[in-house]
Amino acid sequence: MENPVRKTELHNGIRIVTNSMPHVRSVSMGVWVNVGARDEPLENNGMCHFIEHMVFKGTEKRDAFQIAAEMDAIGGNANAFTGMEDTCYHGKVLDTHLPRLTDILSDIFLNSVFQPEEFVRERAVILQEIGMQDDSPDDRVHLMTSEALFGEHPLGRSVLGSPDNLLSFEAHSLLDYLKEWYQPSRIVITAAGHLDHDDFVSLTGPAFEQVSPGPELPQRVPPKNKPELRVEHRDLEQVHLCLAASGLGAVDPRRYAYSLMNIILGGNMSSRLFQEVREKRGLAYSVYSFAPSFSDTGAIGVYAGVDPSNLDLTLDLIYKELSRLKGDKVSEQELRGAKEYVLGSLIMSAESTDNQMLRAAQNEINFGRHKPISESAKNIEAVTREEILELANELLEAPMALAVLGPVQDPDSLRRYV
What we know:
Cytochrome Bc1 Complex, Chain A, domain 1
């Protein structure tokens, strides 16, 4: 059987990866740039995200309304997102409309004009987005946690940037930054769905061959974490808290044990934290663990939103579960349940063209090759109880960062948890 995943590298180094899914009628496409907020100097923080917004605001042949109207006219959707390490421009359409989608995404990516009047309007929109993030306690406490864990390193900053930075940017500086960083070696184009690889390369290749290589870009520097306590007083009904320690990077060979450890700790409804804090004690509506990974580092953490009177009790319970994870091997039943949960999510995600488009990009950016689901499943099945215990002792033994947002009466008392 022919491999459904194929890859072509253009003369300038841009990679095109497709996953043929003949049983569906849709196609998801993404233009990925391995550039994000962690690549920005402090004075440019927020620039990648601002560029992502501006790309949809007009090209030499389409204004912002025409871009939106053309996508609506074919019943498709187009959007973008900026992360710490990647920026993605993506869309999804019926297979018959793939030529139109490739034309639109190629045009906005390669030919955006960054008109000053659009720049001023979009800056106001992003300032509102920053305000919305600040008004959302769970969003705000996660940002505080990044600051407490990663400190002055770019991973500790907001993807959105600061209002002061946004007000200092100019349209031409954004365009210059795009031209400097959006280099062929950092660009990957992926598509998944009802498509033919060679036809897709013919649709996208001629336009993207125009991108010229530029000067060598700075290498990313890993953070030197010094976990801290961050407390922000607000008059809220709840106290929102996050604990976090350094985690594993996306290519670490122990990432499978890392994922399973996160599920057992607080990654689903049968997890230890969910059962102890919510089901048995009724202390929180929302409590979970999280384990994001970047190219060279990561974080393992816990979030909960609780009544202010239960803050200390909740932190004590969280630390108790962390200690239990370090003290004893997880049970065979827990490990089997976590494996089935991860395997089920992995296999079901394969039915989505969006997920397969994203997976193709992550595999190419992180590993430079296609990693079949069967390979990941085999590695998940191979994880042992001993590996999880060893990893828990390595990651959770170090000091943890703590961020607390809400009506905290005695911030100094929280220092005993850090």
